[in-house]
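Exercise 7b. Backbone tokens:
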């Protein structure tokens, strides 16, 4: 699975959704980017795991002493470094690293962030300073559940325990204090079927979504027909946030 995901993201080589037209309604008073700003200052050192092509770091992370963004995909990091040159931002570096085999120094970072990526809380704990903070945003099992049920597969579809609970317990077991799990409820509205289609091609919501297969497009068309509203094509998202302190 790890090699399969690596090949997928190497081929994708970007994680930008600016070309997809959609709106969001957020029903939880917890915003990942705002939480990062609350936990940092101008002297902070941040490690961002699973940084993809660096879009979030470059556009939403605060100015601080140092930001290191890492990703398992060399193609993603290649794209991130190109984006960095165009951004003009300083004190940010990107490099390849496996989240499950971290080589960052011990007791170094003030904050470790991880958005929609696998993590090893034990290794994160080691690289954080005393009183350093961990901030995770993940995709839970019931994300896009109606769509997954129509296709009979999808990200976390067969998990017996929600990944939010698995991650929550792993963070506690690693020794973090003040650990909190926050369910995040979002509804997205995609303006056209093409926008929804672009999302599915770019993300692992549906395992191996193949736009070339008529049966795939027929199922997607059925979903669109049943979930089109005045605001757009409705997609119910289920995310989660986890915070912890070393």
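Sequence design result:
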């Amino acid at each position: 699975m790890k090699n399969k995901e690596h090949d997928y993201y190497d081929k994708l080589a970007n994680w930008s959704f600016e070309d997809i037209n959609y709106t969001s309604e957020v029903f939880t008073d917890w915003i990942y980017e705002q939480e990062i700003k609350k936990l940092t200052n101008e002297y902070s050192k941040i490690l961002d795991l699973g940084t993809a092509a660096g879009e979030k770091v470059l556009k939403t992370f605060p100015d601080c002493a140092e930001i290191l963004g890492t990703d398992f995909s060399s193609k993603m990091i290649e794209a991130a470094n190109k984006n960095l040159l165009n951004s003009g931002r300083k004190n940010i570096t990107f490099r390849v690293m496996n989240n499950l085999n971290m080589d960052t120094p011990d007791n170094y970072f003030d904050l470790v962030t991880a958005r929609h990526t696998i993590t090893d809380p034990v290794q994160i704990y080691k690289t954080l300073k005393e009183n350093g903070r961990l901030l995770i945003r993940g995709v839970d099992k019931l994300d896009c559940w109606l769509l997954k049920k129509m296709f009979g597969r999808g990200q976390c579809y067969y998990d017996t325990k929600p990944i939010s609970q698995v991650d929550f317990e792993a963070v506690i077991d690693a020794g973090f204090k003040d650990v909190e799990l926050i369910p995040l409820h979002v509804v997205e509205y995609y303006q056209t079927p093409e926008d929804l289609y672009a999302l599915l091609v770019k993300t692992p919501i549906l395992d191996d979504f193949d736009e070339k297969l008529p049966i795939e497009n027929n199922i997607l068309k059925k979903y669109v027909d049943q979930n089109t509203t005045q605001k757009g094509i409705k997609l119910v998202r289920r995310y989660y946030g986890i915070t912890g302190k070393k």
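Instructor comment: Strands lie at 22-26, 45-49, 66-71, 92-96, 109-115, 128-139, 177-190, 228-229, 232-245. Residues 1-13 have pLDDT under 50 and may be disordered.
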